Amino acid sequence: MDPIFTIIVIVLLALAVSDLIVGVSNDAANFLNSAIGSKAAPRWVIMAVASVGIVIGSVFSSGMMEVARNGVFHPGMFSFQDIMMLFLAVMLTDVILLDLFNTLGLPTSTTVSLVFELLGAAVIVALFVIARGEGSTDLSQDINSGKALAIISGILLSVVIAFVCGSIIMYITRLIFSFHYQQSFRIFGPFWCGFAFTAITYFALFKGLKGSSIMTPELAELLQGNMTMLLVAMFLGWTLISFALMCLRVNVLKITVLAGTFSLALAFAGNDLVNFIGVSVAGLDSYKLAKASGDVQMMMGDLAKPVVANTWILLTAGLIMAVTLWTSKKARNVSATEINLARRDEGVERFGSTSVSRGIVRFALNVNRNISKGLPKSLQRSINKRFRPLTARERTDASFDLIRATVNLTVASLLIALGTSLKLPLSTTYVTFMVGMGSSLADRAWGRESAVYRITGVLTVISGWFLTALIAFGVAALVATVLMWLEEPGVYIMLAVVVLILFQSARSYRRKSQKEESRDAERVTLANDNIVEALVGEIRTTMKNIVRIYNQTLDGVFKEDRKLLKQMVDEADELHQEAHRRKHELFSALQWLKNNNIETGHYYVQVIDYQNEATKALYHICKPCYKLIDNNHEGFNKEQVNDLRQINNDVSEIYDRIIQMLETSDFSDLDYVMELRDRLFNRISDAVLEQVRRTKKGNTSSKAGALFFEIASETKTMVLQSRNLIKSQKLFVSNVEE
Question: What is the residue range of 729's domain?
């Protein structure tokens, strides 16, 4: 047998390991978010419970997913060498696609990815086979397009149903328990947890273990025939157990959330494991068949036969996924997206505002006003009382409470189990995400201050799901074209391309993570006993970055260094975004200052406001400088450069004094800074006057002249706001010390 096929098999197995890693990073959010978001237990406990569920689910997995072998295409129409190229194209695409979504922090469906990768690669391979005059002449005989249509219908159905059910059930649940649920939970808690445990158990049995070696056809038939009696017995049993645990003062809600986490992790490994290894194992089986026959042109009809999964392969895959769960930072990145969109508190939003999201919010507000007009005032007051949020003193640092976490897990479990029993192609990712979004909406977590941004986030994720199908099909088709056209050289080329893409992605993500970790280390945390010192340190760092970026921006525009200017624009934007983010965190910082009897919050508000304005002015200097050079316009002449260098020297002297005062907490030079500021403003006025004269004489280009005026104006704003900042900082620090 040609050695290239041995290489392909080795690559397929290596890609299976990689796919397991990136796949878990994507799908971990499905079963971790409810427990992590509600802080049902320490993170290590949640991870341990999920890990046990993954390992058990993988061992009892239903084995090789049929869609990987014959669900999308008919293997009997392809030869061994063609089908190996098909499998290789699918796995290369799958690793790239999942890694991309993980890096962006967006959850996607591994099932949808796999199906459309198989479809895209199979179509191209089939066209090459037809072009060679081999096999059939009708593409429809090679491809099972009905499977792809079923997946699309499943997406539409699951998204709508999950969101609506999550909203309705969460609304009813909150009416029953309210946010102050401790008292009412003593009465209704055992029944609620009994129902939740029953739903979770039903889900674990008929979704997590369906088709496994434990769930034999005889046992499945026995359970199905006595389903009503079984559900009633489970409900009564779990209700009594919940009541007993509550009598022992055990927080049964936390146990319910952990049980749901275990159940979803079990189902994930039992059903989605094959999304990651099914294609690679199918390739290994194809290799064994061809090697035994000695004919690389043999048709692969045997792939359509049922195959018993190798237990050791499943166990190894489960252990790899469990280890990845503990070590993957990208898994936390994906989880953070959903938790951020579902959290109850306002603050920094990851997503921006769009015309669509604004329109949806306006429509919802109008509908709410019209409904409110028709409801009795007493009923509205009663409903609003049930949704009265916790006070700042009553809140914990959890993103949402245990009641919502149990709703998320229970509703998701029921919908997925129901879809499975009806043979609907539901996606675990889609259902769990949309249930979480629906429950957060019904729980009034999306207030007027955050709704437009949360809706943008949800629409972004949903659009990403549909793009997944198109991208998976297109990229797999492209990779398959290269492999079928170039054959063996194409294999090496595509391997090199994929390795390069993954390397660049890892390096880019590492740099981004390091920046975020560095920023988080400097950022003030409310639990930090040295919060005032941290606040001073943050302002000091901001001032250093402002003068550094300003100096390098002017140097870059003098030298027409486009690369340096682009870097400064990015850094200035990041600095301003951080300052803007700090404005959203004012409430938490002010609350901490108040709790620690520090009555200088109004000075701190001024400091943050001036910081935001100074960084905004800096960005408005950097951006037009970059645009001038990026558009290849004529740069500054010698006279303009000389004027700006003098301005830069004065700016540097002012900031050197400011930074020195911040480092020593000695603000005795504040009046001298005022003198330096006045001298700078006079110099800027003179420079502007000279530029007006140059413009009248036509001694400068219009673009460069306009930029000169803009730099002069924004420099004045930047220095003015920085001087105001240091003045407020002095008052803030001095009053704290008193």
Answer: 527-737
